[in-house]
Write a structure and sequence with these properties.
mainly alpha
């Protein structure tokens, strides 16, 4: 979720407080996170399929690995 929200830290924190049952901060509106997560994880109560979420996580892992590989290639030149 942190990655999906990017620099929208306040929205991420509102979502995390709502997801973990922590007391909301003044002005929290976890529904704003819907724009960041609907296409990836779906929205309650059903959410997206487990396969869809796993595929997204695999895509992020692949991007991180290929980025690391590109970085190492630049260093070794």
């Amino acid at each position: 979720m942190r990655l999906r929200c990017g620099r929208a830290e306040r929205i991420f924190l509102a979502w995390r407080r709502a997801a973990t049952g922590t007391r909301p901060a003044d002005g929290d509106d976890p529904s704003l996170a819907a724009a960041f997560i609907e296409s990836t994880f779906g929205l309650p109560p059903d959410g997206a399929s487990e396969d869809h979420a796993e595929g997204y996580v695999a895509e992020i892992a692949w991007r991180m690995l290929t980025h690391e590989e590109q970085h190492l290639m630049r260093i070794c030149r």
